Structure formats: C-alpha cells, structure tokens
Amino acid sequence: MGTFEMQGLTWKAKSKYQQDAILIENKVIQHDGLISKLYSHSEKEQWCIAVADGISNSPTVDKASYTVLKALTQNSELTQYKTSAIQQYLVDQLANQKSSFGASSTLAVIYNNARQGFVTIQHVGDSRVYLFSQHDQKWHCLTRDHNYLEQLRENGEVKEGENYASIYGALLQYFCADPLHEVMDFTTTEEHLTENDALLICTDGVHDVMECGEWPALKVDIELRAWLLDMKASLDSKQAYDNVSMVLVRAKI
User: Fold this and answer.
1) Which of 117, 39, 111 is nearest to 69 (CA)?
2) Which residue of 95, 108, 141, 204 is surrounded by the most CB atoms within 10 Å?
C-alpha cells in the first residue's frame, strides 16, 4: 500500500506581520517561523494540506487566512470542498465585527481522493500548487492565478516577453468577510503521483521571489525538512520580503 509523507514551513520573512497560515494534520498553523513535524498517511487515509494568504489591503488579514483554513477543519469528512461553505464560514466568523469586516484571503488545497495514487487540487486566488516529476526531474506549476493578467492571457491579449504593471496582478477571485461578496466555484483538478513524485503548495511569497525553474530538485533520498530549509535559505538570500508558507507532500509507493 502506498503512503504520502508531508511537512510544512511558514516564515514571516522581512514583513512586519504574518499574514499567511498553513493547514497540516487538520491543524491550522500561523507562526513567525516554524517547520511542522513530518506526517505520513496511507493512501486510504483521509488527509488535507492547505495554505492561505491574507490579502494585504484588507483588514485583519491574519484572521482572514486563519479562518479560511479553519473552515476546512469544520468539513474534514467531505470528499470535496465548496467555496460557498468556506465563504459563509468566513462571513459568520468575521463579517459581524467592524474591525474585521472585509477581511480577505486566498486559498489552495490538496487532499487525497478515492482513486489510487490520485490527489485533488483546489484553489482560489494566487496561492499555487507545483508538481515535481521524477520523470523529468523538474518542477511544474499546476494552477493558474485568478487575476487580471491570467484573464488577459486566456483571451490571447498578453504578449510574450512583455512586462506588465503590478496592477495587472490584481486578484479577481478571493474569499472575503462580506455577505455580499461572491466567489467562484473552486478550480478543481486531479493529479496522479507515481513513486517519489511530489507536490508543493505555497503562497505568493515563494513564487514571486523564485519561479519554479530556480527551485532545487527533490532528490529521492533527501528529507522533506532538508528541502524546505534549503528553499528558505534560497529565498532569504534573494531578500524575500513577503511571508513564505509552503507544504510539501511526496508519494511513497
């Protein structure tokens, strides 16, 4: 029987506040700098990992990311998560308080499903999921950000090699503690993992500083902790400012 091993890291970096949170082993972790324990689950056991990133121009962003992940723990027996349920939980928890009304967050989730060797990926916003394939020894981005630039790209209006102002990165989809806010259904995909393939789920504090072509390979014999700490050191050397949160999961058949 196959297993999945997983471990997470969250780090405030040079930002004044920690606006990210991670979910692993049904626990929400929000910390200035922490690496989780290593967890392992058989492919028949239920598990879920996730990251959330509070949107900085909204209020109480730390509460937004924490609450969005907490919503997943309220529905841990579900076979598929619904954006409507998470959005409603965020509204119920934060929209009634003046200080946290409008608190907003992204979300990316990976969890196992009933098909052997397959996992389900869901996301809203610009937190991403990447695959490390043992076949070609490369990292590949599996998700597409829900922002204006990606919408232009889908419409064929983006020119390759051309730089675009930061306003084009503005999010079009996110969770928000406002009863009138509408969020699209999850972008949902399945991914099949073979021996020693891995997925990394991370906030934009990772990929804004280093795109996946620069990431170290995940060698078969390297511990997840060692790889995560190597990534942190690389981001630190590049003067990473924004919060960094990531969870790594590897298939062991």
Assistant:
1) 111
2) 108
156 beta partners: none
Residue ranges for the chain with pLDDT beneath 70: 1, 76-79, 148-169
Of 212, 210, 220, the C-alpha closest to 250 is 220
Q: What percent of the chain has pLDDT over 90?
A: 79
The structure tokens listed for 121 are 């990926």
CA neighbours within 13 Å on the CB side: how many for 48? 23
| Token pair for 166 | 């930061």
Looking at residue 66, its amino acid is Y
HSE value, Cβ hemisphere, 13 Å, CA-based, for 200 = 28
